[in-house]
Design brief:
single chain, 250 residues, seven-stranded mixed beta sheet, methyltransferase activity, transferase, SAM-dependent_MTases_sf, Methyltransf_25, methyltransferase
Length: 250
């Protein structure tokens, strides 16, 4: 599906221009309040580092809560949109598996399925290790990601629809051997035609993330179904997971 030589899809200027959509549910004020409140509580009096910070959807409201935020972003175009909003959030261009900052934080986090942007298991493992490198002892690493919707896939098929609306058709296509997947987005243009905008990712299970955390020297703290701390169950479609760097960790 993709080239292993690159770590992730590189978002273009066109994608960056259309990313901040106030009508998108992920920009709902109540969701951003819950998300930033959750993260601010974990950051405490320290600072935070967001992997794949994008246009600052979460970083800006977290900064408004008084938490100093830094970012790592793979797409210069996405980072440019953040810089148009504020110059109070430093951003380094690079991928979240290998890029290092010369400081540590009380919180490292990545949201909205971003861990899947890394195409390989090795890259995802390195992302956890990179988070651990940037954490103060006792600091937390937070990941928000969906649970693979394989149970919804009809027998004999390899795709699951996630949105069917007037202006957008979306479905996820899964490769069960490689754990690679493609989110296919068909977006209606003003002339009525549909434009295909694929997004590649690697789906990952909660237990697999726990093992990645263990390999990075992190210990589990909690797993919730959402930012409101709803209990995570076998029916949950996503999760917010928290790990901690031991106080005696190197």
């Amino acid at each position: 599906m993709t080239d292993d030589a690159v770590p992730s899809d590189l978002w273009t200027n066109e994608q960056a221009d259309h990313y901040d959509d106030p009508d998108d549910p992920m920009f709902a004020p109540e969701l951003l309040a819950a998300t930033s409140g959750f993260l601010a509580e974990l950051a405490g009096d320290g600072s935070a580092l967001e992997f794949a910070i994008g246009t600052g959807r979460v970083a800006v409201p977290l900064r408004e809560r008084g938490v100093p935020v830094h970012g790592i972003e793979y797409s210069p175009e996405m980072a440019a949109k953040l810089r148009e909003k504020t110059d109070a959030i430093p951003v380094v261009i690079g991928d979240m598996a290998t890029t290092r900052l010369d400081q540590r934080f009380s919180l490292v986090y990545l949201v909205f399925n971003t861990i899947g942007n890394l195409y390989t298991q090795d890259a995802q493992v390195e992302c956890f290790r990179n988070a651990a490198r940037h954490l103060d002892p006792g600091g937390h690493f937070v990941v928000e990601v969906g649970v693979p919707s394989l149970r919804s896939m009809p027998p004999g098929h390899d795709a699951v629809p996630f949105d069917i609306s007037e202006g957008h058709l979306g479905f996820d296509q899964y490769d069960l051997v490689t754990q690679r997947a493609v989110s296919h987005h068909y977006v209606r243009e003003t002339d009525g035609r549909f434009q295909h905008r694929p997004h590649h990712f690697r789906f990952v299970w909660p237990s697999e993330l726990d093992l990645m955390a263990r390999l990075a020297g992190l210990e589990p703290v909690a797993r919730y179904a959402d930012w409101d701390r709803t209990p995570f169950t076998g029916e949950s479609t996503s999760h917010v997971s928290v790990w901690r760097k031991p106080v005696d960790g190197a």
